[in-house]
Amino acid sequence: GIGAGHGASNVLVYNNTVVNNEMTGISWGNQGGSIVRNNIIHGNGQDFFDYNGTTITRSNNFCAASGPGCSEVGDPSFVDPEALDFRLRADSRAIDAGFNLSGFAMTDYDRSARVQGSDIDIGAFEFGGGTPTDTQSPSVSILNPVNGSTVRRLN
Fold this sequence. Notes:
By secondary structure, the protein is mainly β. The protein is 0% helix and 27% strand. The protein has strands at residues 2-4, 12-14, 17-19, 24-28, 35-37, 40-42, 46-50, 57-59, 61-63, 70-73, 78-80, 85-88. Strand 11 and strand 12 form a beta hairpin. The radius of gyration is 17 Å and the shape is globular.
């Protein structure tokens, strides 16, 4: 998930897709002036968690359960979540349901321009923005593990 706190202030959490975290989708604590908008929070242990009653602005989020800052609730209609394709299907209620951020989040996760319809979409992907062309799996090499660290390959 996404977490902010420890005295951070004015944190902006815009247009993310946060899925399948065991604990919390988005959490915060001990900060002021922060804004959480246009995020899809789905399949997590809970949507939001506030560590100490901090007041933040939340709006236009698509959540698994109803609550403050959740303008849409339920299934966000991803293309193929089992294959980790979290782009939006044409029938998604997240399309054109975001808060206009004027100057922020001008491109989506695929680097496609926002806005493709009448308004910004909720989540990391703008519907109609195109299909990702990079199908190459990332490759990471660790050449010098530090002080007895071990390296495990995850496939």
